[in-house]
Amino acid sequence: YARALARFIDRRRLEFAVEVEEYNRLVAQTICSTASSTPGTCSEAEGAVSPDSAADALRLEQSLLRRRVQPGFEVWTSMLKRTMETAEFFDAQRYRIKNIRSLNEIYAGKCEGMTYQEIAQKFPDEFEARQLDKFYYRYPGIGGESYADVVMRLQQVIVELERIRHSVLLVTHRAMARTLLAYLMDIPTTHMPSMELPLGYIYACEPRPFGNFLRVWRYDPLRDDFVEIDAPSTLKIRYPQVSLPTATSAPPLPSPAETAYSAKN
After folding, report:
1. What is the chain's alpha carbon radius of gyration, rounded to the nearest angstrom?
2. Of 56, 5, 31, the residue nearest 200 (C-alpha)
3. Long-range pairs, 224-230, Cβ under 8 A, ≥24
4. What is the per-residue pLDDT for 43?
5. Angle (nearest 5°) at CA 175 between 174 and 179
6. Where are the beta strands (DSSP E) in the chain?
7. Residue 45 has what pLDDT?
8. Does residue 239 register a pLDDT over 60?
9. What is the pLDDT of residues 126-138, one digit of tens each?
């Protein structure tokens, strides 16, 4: 999986760079068009809108290839071993790789390392409290976090993402992915903790003049590659019934500490 991810990004990074340049050009044109009534605001060349944006994008791509330009691309991971291992096949000479503590998975306090089934059996009151309010519920114990805490610690990451003008790949965890996607795609925080995000997916948020556009790729173990799928169908909100599981019932959810990628996902 890690090798396939590195190959996929190697192929797509030029396309992503062209899309970013195209977006920046459209933004500049929009600003110039809006301010065209003010003398001296934009030159005629800057304010002109190309009749064939696809041709412009192709020319930009060909220009980058001729100049052998390597577009800027960063890879950010958490400080946890499983994300750093996922990014180990990226060439450090071509990618700027950062390990960021703020991208670590939500910390479950004294429940860390336990499955949800184990939490329900050992701490039934805590399990029920979490089902009632997943966003504000904070895991018990020293350092236990809630989704609200995760939002606070991701603020600097989001500020940096907004500042950067090139592509960034974030190799992180479900709680972090839910929080970032909710921010980028304007999903209410009340729905955020219940977003279904299977392992082995790439979510690409592409900036557009009137919001972000989402594209999704799923890892296909038979092809050992990523296949693009319908994005709206992937962001599902799960509304589980609030009930305590019995001793014989199957675990309703995977462990809070994610396991390694499985082909079943």
Report:
1. 22
2. 5
3. 224/3, 224/4, 225/4, 225/7, 225/8, 226/4, 226/5, 226/8, 226/202
4. 45
5. 115
6. 73-77, 96-99, 167-171, 195-196, 201-208, 211-220, 225-229, 236-237
7. 39
8. no
9. 999 999 999 999 9
- What is the per-residue DSSP string for 36-53? TTSTTSS-HHHHPPPS-H
Q: For residue 79, which amino acid is it?
A: M
How far is the CA of 215 from the CAs of 42, 126, 168, 185, 218, in angstroms?
33, 36, 15, 11, 10
Structure tokens given for 153: 């610690």
Tokens linked to 113 = 């390392």
CB 106 within 8 A of CB 147: yes
Q: Which of 216, 214, 197 is nearest to 265 (CA)?
A: 197
Residue with tokens 């390597």: 70
110 token code pair: 């004294």
Place of tokens 């309010």: 133
DSSP track, 77-122: E-SSHHHHHHTTTS-TTTSEEEE-GGGSPPP-GGGTT--HHHHHHH
- The β-bridge partners of 77 are 99, 171
Half-sphere exposure (CA, 13 Å, Cβ side) for 62?
6
Please count the CA atoms within 13 angstroms of the CA of 119 that sit on its side-chain side: 25
Say how many residues make up the chain: 265
State CA 103 to chain mean position distance: 11
Q: Strand, helix or coil at 226?
A: strand
* Measured distance CA(246)–CA(115) in Å, rounded: 14
To which residue do tokens 């946890």 refer?
80
Predicted confidence band of residue 229 (pLDDT cuts 50, 70, 90): very high
CB 155, CB 240: distance < 8 Å:
no
The Cα–Cα gap between 83 and 76 comes to 9
